[in-house]
Amino acid sequence: MYGPLIVKPAKSKGDKTGSWRIKLKPKFLQKNCIGCKMCLLVCPEGCIQGKEKNTYLPNYEYCKGCGLCAVICPKADIIMVEESSEGDKK
Amino acid sequence: MESELLFKPGHTACAGCGQSLAARMVIEAAGKNTIVANNTGCLEVFSTKYPESAWNVPWIHSLFENCAAVASGIEAALIYLGKKDTTNVIAQGGDGGTADIGLQALSGMLERGHDILYVCYDNEAYMNTGVQRSGLTPFHTNTTTSPIGPKSVGNVRFKKPMPEIANAHGIPYVATASAGFPQDIQRKVKKAISIKGPKYIQIHVPCPLGWRHETELMLEIGKLAVETGLYPLIEYENGVLSAVRKITQPKPVEEYLKAQGRFKHLLGNPELIKQIQDIADNNIRKYNLKG
Known about the structure:
The complex is a heterodimer of chains A (90) and B (291). Chain A has 90 residues and is of the alpha+beta class. Chain A has helices at 38-42, 68-72, and strands spanning 24-28, 48-49, 57-58, 78-82. Chain B has one domain (2-286): Thiamin diphosphate (ThDP)-binding fold, Pyr/PP domains (Rossmann fold).
């Protein structure tokens, strides 16, 4: 075997792309969630997880702040808020 | 739950990338018993930044032009090993790697009848290298190799009819999908892998960087392309148009154009917008989309 070989699949988890967010980040209010899973489905990052209603949360270590989850949420239970400080970028 | 994900976070796609969403939909629908061959392109670059990989399935990068040929070899090897019945093979690439550079290998794969699903992620230009026009770039699009100027209003050629070209090979399944309708992508991929033989799916994937729109509009723009008739969602089975996504009230193309920087030069010029509207109207007639 020759050439670049990545023997451990799914190794990209080491790359904390959450530091890319420049201004806004999604805030999951977890009040009116109906568990429709649309945020989990449309996240281009695939970093939202949860099992039932009001449990869905993004992993801010990877979230790039594109805002699609806030747009798709039928109950407006996800809002985009200002990144409050550098400390939040994890 | 995270360990079951087949396309992991941490890849380096831009925020709001339609292609990363579509790629995740495709691999999740195909399941973990899948081998993926990938053309050079955005998807290859952002998902496998060496020494990292977002893929949780066996994945191989070929050259720009030959992923369909590499996938054909994988399929032949699986048949020899007696493992083809339990393993799906997916070949995938961008619009440049499919419609321009990789067309020869793709045509060969379709003609030889390999049991492979080919997925083309159509972001309508060579986004990875800096937005150069490809064969699938639409009419009047502003790209770096079809720039606007005193004597130019963007790309002078129409979009290459790739679904029809694939269908002309007489293969069992051809479909178009859109990142604006993620569940539809999953349904079509599941249907495709249940059919034996070569399959072709072309997915329209908005690109916030190259199309110059806000990241949160990605899904909306994908939907508008379908609802205006500019990107009809169609399915061919055994050469016959078997299903289309009907549009009850076609939206004017201006709604689709106005959100994107690549079409900004068309706004305020009714004659140019009319030319785009004609393409949409023609699609609606051709595929009988109104319903």
